[in-house]
Amino acid sequence: MASTNGTGPSEVPAGTPAAEPAETGAETGADTRTETPETPETRLGRMTTYRLRLSYTGAVVAVVLLMLSMTPSLLPRGPLFQGAVSGASAACGYMIGVFLSWAVRYMFSRDFSEWRGRTLSWRWWAPLGVVALVGFVAGLWKFREWQNEVRDLVGESPLAWTVFPVTVVVAALVFLVLVLLGQGWGTLVRTLYTWLGLLVPPRIARVASIAVVIALTVFLANGVVAKYSMQFLNASFAAANDQTSETSVQPTSEWRSGGPESLVSWESLGREGRTFVSHGPSTEQLEEVNGSRAVEPIRSFVGLGSGDDLRANAALAAEELVRAGGLGREIIAVGSATGSGWINQATVDSLEYMYNGNIATVSMQYSYLPSWLSFLVDSERARQAGVYLFEAVDAKIRELPENRRPKIVVFGESLGSFGAEAAFGTIPTLTARTDGALFVGPTFNNDLWREATDQRDAGSPERLPVYDNGEHLRFAAEASDLEELDSEWNEPRVVYLQHASDPITWWSPDLIFNRPDWLSESRGPDVLDSTQWIPLITFLQVSADMAVSTDVPDGHGHTYISEIPRAWAKILEPVGWTGDEGEEKLEQIIPLLSRSGSL
Predict the structure, then answer these.
(1) Name one Pfam family in it (predicted).
(2) Which of 120-124, 193-197, 227-231, 552-556 has the lowest mean pLDDT?
(3) Same domain, yes or no, for 100 and 203?
(4) Disulfide check for 422: which of 141, 211, 386, 417 has CB 3.0–4.6 Å away?
(5) Is residue 207, in this structure, part of any structural domain at all?
């Protein structure tokens, strides 16, 4: 965050006609021009006193971005998140305004040390204050209107009147904290500049001071803050990993990891692993839906309690699959979990219903962190886990005679979809090595997803691209989208499920400066037409949307349940699960599907 000019030397070059006066934030009209140049020694003494002063240019840009931050994005935002977005937007606007003001003055100056300025009177600040107040109130009123429209689209209740005071307070606090941090950073730069000014020419001192403080900031952020923050987070989430949810009970079946004869202990599975192996449809439920004798599904899982070597854990997961008899099942599903080991139960339950239990699912944990943190710091481990697990399982399958090999499918949701893709460098490789794949809510850096999206057929939208005329790979927000193309859908089939309102899929650093195609083309059915791309603002809004992406009803945001079994039915076409009979079964099992655990 750039600092203000109220604590440093005057910043308007003598004799230069200024488009706007220099500002210090003082509310007096007195002329403060200094005829006697300030020496480095006197400046150093003055630097010991710190006062919070606001840049007028920075305040103007902050007000503009503050009002723009009220515009709608993908999902409903409550007052807390809107306050955070508004405060951060205003702080970024302030930083931009201060920097631009500084840059313009610096370019027009002959000698940076000769700058002279004058203070701004209340006649400048009063109109800006009125505009800011009126604009913020009007923006909040319009914000509530827009948010209620978004809430109506996704089936949520309208915002209460409390949105107004809570948003104001949170926005003010966030803005103040960020500005204070930025001004503290600027004070450090100016202090170092003053010390160096005693030894070297002013311009060299200024460049050197900025470079040193930036280097120090990066070092502290990466070497100290990041290190100890990650140690704290890992310790905290490792403790949570040792807990067991109330609905998880150690299996008594040999077909589940953590049960009798298992190669891994119940305690080693982790919280999400224990949830995974202790849930799912019973044989009685399977028989009720399918009307025939069922077998108990196999669920194999290896947690970080078995060690931190991902390659060894993947090999152990494959051995556990073989131990449970997975190679004798009709389908083997290789699932990539999110960081903490979470798997959407609907994805696995659907397959178990469709194959009447004649299926084995295998997965593994690679982090203690939840999905969003793993996405930031553990993405390489997600990639490694996906590669090691698939290769270990595939090696076991290839040991069998070709006519006895089960079908193999892969799946993953969110960061899990990123890991599930990792074993396949190209889409043809994916279709050559599997019998089908389902990727749900992909992230912006999924390699195969990005390839298919960027190379989509001309005329198809980014939110639902058509790749290679849909020969093997298709995109859908709902199952009916899979049938939109007239071309033949050849096997093996790959599906990406992605909602138009899913911020996990559409978030990207590119949003800061580039308009995405999905906001240039026609909107999805659950995205307002009034949602527009605004540089920086949209990035902050979608970032906030990610935090609430699973707190919306099924079919919106990052919540996927009912479309998962429909997608599997299209991918694999199990006997009895297509046509009218299959639709009746799908309607029967959808209410039974669970989404236990958390991202």
Answers:
(1) Abhydrolase_9_N
(2) 227-231
(3) yes
(4) 386
(5) yes
Residue that terminates a domain, selected from 207, 236, 265:
236
Residue 535 inside a domain? The answer is no
Question: Do 360 and 492 share a domain, yes or no?
Answer: yes
Question: Which residue stretches of 56-201 are H helix?
Answer: 56-68, 79-108, 122-154, 163-197
**Stated pTM of the model:** 0.83
- Are residues 231 and 246 part of one domain? no
Tally of structural domains, the chain: 2
Are residues 232 and 193 located together in one domain of the fold? yes
Helix (H, G, I), strand (E, B) or coil at 110: coil
Cα-trace Rg, the chain: 29
Q: What's the one-letter identity of residue 34?
A: T
Looking at the fold, whether 228 and 259 belong to one and the same domain comes out as no
Query: Are residues 370 and 293 both part of a single domain?
Result: yes
186 & 114 share domain: yes
Per-residue CA distances from 361 to 7, 327, 373, 478, 592 (Å): 64, 11, 25, 25, 19
Q: Report helix, strand and coil shares of the chain as percent, to nearest 5.
A: 55, 5, 40
476 φ, ψ (degrees, to nearest 5):
-155, 145
* Cα–Cα distance list, 187 to 8, 124, 165, 179, 402 (Å): 9, 25, 33, 12, 71
How many whole angstroms separate alpha carbon 331 and alpha carbon 321?
12
Instruction: Tell how many helices (H) and how many strands (E) occur in the chain.
Output: 20, 7
Tokens read off for 415: 């960061």
| Residue 42 phi, psi dihedral angles, 5° rounding | -70, -35
Indicate the residue type of 258.
Answer: G
Structure tokens given for 248: 């998880």
Asked if residue 5 lies in contact with residue 187, where contact means CB atoms within 8 angstroms, the answer is: no
Longest dimension (CA), the chain: 97
pLDDT tens digits for range 550-597: 889 999 999 999 999 999 999 999 999 988 888 999 999 999 887 654
Asked if 285 contacts 268 with a C-beta cutoff of 8 angstroms, the reply is no
Q: What is the pLDDT of residues 235-252, one digit of tens each?
A: 666 667 777 888 888 999
pLDDT, tens digit, 9 for 90 and up, residues 397-440: 999 999 999 999 999 999 999 999 999 989 999 999 999 999 99
Q: Check the CA dihedral 234-239-241-246 and report its sign.
A: negative
Q: Is 387 helix (H, G, I), strand (E, B) or coil?
A: helix
Q: Please, are residues 33 and 76 in contact by the beta-carbon 8 Å criterion? A: no
Cβ–Cβ under 8 Å, residues 505 and 498:
yes
Last residue of a domain, one of 191, 211, 236: 236
Q: Which domain holds residue 106?
A: 40-236
- Residues 200 and 165 occupy one common structural domain: yes
Token pair belonging to 382 = 């997600």
Tell me, yes or no, whether 61 lies in a domain: yes
